[in-house]
Every structure is written in C-alpha cells, then in structure tokens.
C-alpha cells in the first residue's frame, strides 16, 4: 500500500495546486485534516485487524463501509438539509445494498467449525 501511495503521490504532485491550501477557511482546512487523519487511522485499523481476523472476514466488514456511508449521508441530509442534498435511492440500489450486506454477513459468519 505504501508503494502505491508513494507512486500516486509522485505522479500527481506536478498537477497539484499548492496555493489552494493557503486559501482554505477554518472549516475546510479542518475537514482536510480530518480526512487525512481518518485515512491514517483507517489503514492502521485495517492492518491491525488482519493480525486478529481472517482476511475474508476483514474484507466482508470493509465491504459494508459504503453502506454505512450511504446511511450516514441519508441521516445528515434529514438533520441538516443545507449541508447535503437528500439522496434518492432507487429500488435497484436498495436491492444491491441488501445483497452487499447479505454477502458480507455470510462471509463473516462463515461455516461453523
């Protein structure tokens, strides 16, 4: 993962506009710092989880992350509609999310030994 991140950083650095960092207000700078720390903590937790669980179970839990994100966006759009517009989910999208959850649970539970 480190090699991938370093390679991407090297490739994208010439396209970066560093000046845009200096014009961020406090809220957006805080969000940028939060995202950076969140990524570091998440990958640290992922690495640690591989020490304690089988990789298939870790992958099943990670597959649920987008579902949690969609639920969080739906909740925030109800609480603070000015921040995030309401998301309209189709029946196919809800069915697909259900399949992801079902598959993740099936993999996480695995076979009884």
TrEMBL record:
<dbReference type="InterPro" id="IPR000620">
    <property type="entry name" value="EamA_dom"/>
</dbReference>
<keyword id="KW-0472">Membrane</keyword>
<protein>
    <recommendedName>
        <fullName>EamA domain-containing protein</fullName>
    </recommendedName>
</protein>
<feature type="transmembrane region" description="Helical">
    <location>
        <begin position="27"/>
        <end position="46"/>
    </location>
</feature>
<feature type="domain" description="EamA">
    <location>
        <begin position="9"/>
        <end position="107"/>
    </location>
</feature>
<keyword id="KW-0812">Transmembrane</keyword>
<comment type="similarity">
    <text>Belongs to the EamA transporter family.</text>
</comment>
<dbReference type="GO" id="GO:0016020">
    <property type="term" value="C:membrane"/>
</dbReference>
<keyword id="KW-1133">Transmembrane helix</keyword>
<feature type="transmembrane region" description="Helical">
    <location>
        <begin position="91"/>
        <end position="110"/>
    </location>
</feature>
<dbReference type="Pfam" id="PF00892">
    <property type="entry name" value="EamA"/>
</dbReference>
<dbReference type="InterPro" id="IPR037185">
    <property type="entry name" value="EmrE-like"/>
</dbReference>
<feature type="transmembrane region" description="Helical">
    <location>
        <begin position="58"/>
        <end position="79"/>
    </location>
</feature>
